[in-house]
Design brief:
Helix content: 25-40%
CATH class of the largest domain: Mainly Alpha
Keywords: ATP-binding, Kinase, Nucleotide-binding, Serine/threonine-protein kinase, Transferase
Protein name: non-specific serine/threonine protein kinase
Number of helices: 10
CATH superfamily of the largest domain: Transferase(Phosphotransferase) domain 1
Order of helices and strands: EHEEEHEEEHHEEEEHHHHHH
GO molecular function: ATP binding; protein serine/threonine kinase activity
EC number: 2.7.11.1
Distance between the termini: 36 Å
Strand order of the largest sheet: 1-5-6-4-3-2
Strand content: 15-25%
CATH architecture of the largest domain: Orthogonal Bundle
CATH topology of the largest domain: Transferase(Phosphotransferase), domain 1
Number of strands: 11
Length: 303
């Protein structure tokens, strides 16, 4: 059953709700589910159970989740974004039914192997982010929450970008700051009449690159580090530890002023291109599991 987004349905009449797999993923909690007739496995993003908030506030929180669903629906044609199947109601709250991604969170994979020193592995992770984000940006959106927790590596090595709860049209006025401290750029810390541009995601992706390779987030990973009078990107020993193949682009990606960053994720990809493994090349000596290089080693390159 593929319920139309415009036609909400009762979740439990169509799906068996299985295990809770994540708590408080932005706008709600994440469960696995199975369609009662077809057996299709899905991911269910469920509005958090009502606590002490007013009815009006609870309804407003549900509206935030349906707004995320509308954004996900718009971006469902992007290959790296899980497909939206439908919207429904679950025990009085809103619920999104999405494609289930069978894989391992990127954060879990990278945490076991940091610092990641193999340049083909680093380029394969960042390169796949660039491909997905390029599609998002070409459709006029900014993700605003790029980080390892919001990406999944399928067992084939393919990267999928999750959680569009903070995605917004580029340059649309923002009423408040948002994102994840440590990955969010300065322009996301507060409201802005000018909104944000794709260069906000470039900054966040640069944070991912640095975290993978030198095990440190720029500007101490704190709001205070970003807003300090004399901000320090990284201690000198950490800068020296950045693989030379990535040092220039990585530091440019996390410039505080958006205009000083690469203009697009395609520009970032071009800076990494020489380290992206070619088709039919051998696996790294010590690959991650799943191995993100497998995507480029087995699939014709997009660019």
């Amino acid at each position: 059953m593929t319920g139309r987004f415009e036609d909400p349905f009762d979740i439990e009449s169509h799906y068996e709700v299985l295990d809770q797999i994540s708590f408080d993923t932005g706008q709600g909690d994440l469960y696995t589910g199975r369609h009662r007739k077809t057996g299709e496995k899905v991911a269910l993003k469920v509005q958090k159970e009502r606590q002490f908030e007013s009815t009006r506030h609870f309804i407003a929180l549900g509206r935030d989740l349906t707004d995320e669903g509308e954004c996900t629906s718009t971006l469902s044609e992007v290959p790296g974004i899980p497909r939206l199947i439908g919207q429904g109601v679950f025990r009085g709250g809103q619920c999104l039914v999405m494609e289930y991604v069978d894989g391992v969170p990127l954060y879990d994979v990278v945490s076991l192997f940091r610092p990641v020193r193999d340049t083909s592995t680093v380029a394969s992770v960042i390169g796949q982010f660039c491909e997905v984000l390029d599609d998002v940006h070409r459709r006029g959106y900014v993700h605003r929450d790029v980080k390892p927790d919001n990406a999944m590596l399928e067992h084939s090595g393919r990267l999928r970008l999750l959680d569009l709860g903070l995605a917004t049209p580029a340059r649309r006025r923002t009423e408040y700051g948002c994102g994840s401290i440590g990955y969010a750029p300065p322009e996301q810390l507060r409201s802005s009449d000018d909104g944000v541009t794709p260069r906000a995601d470039v900054f966040s992706l640069g944070c991912v690159l640095l975290e993978m390779t030198v095990m440190r987030l720029p500007y101490d990973g704190t709001r205070g580090g970003l807003t300090a009078e004399n901000p320090v990107v990284l201690p000198r020993d950490r800068i020296d530890a950045i693989p030379k193949e990535f040092a220039e682009v990585a530091l440019a990606m996390v410039e505080l002023r958006p205009e000083n960053r690469p203009a697009s994720v395609r520009e970032v990809y071009e800076a990494l291109r020489s380290r992206v493994p070619p088709v039919d090349s051998p696996a790294p000596r010590k690959p991650l599991r799943p191995d993100p290089t497998e995507y480029y080693r087995t699939v014709p390159h997009r660019w």
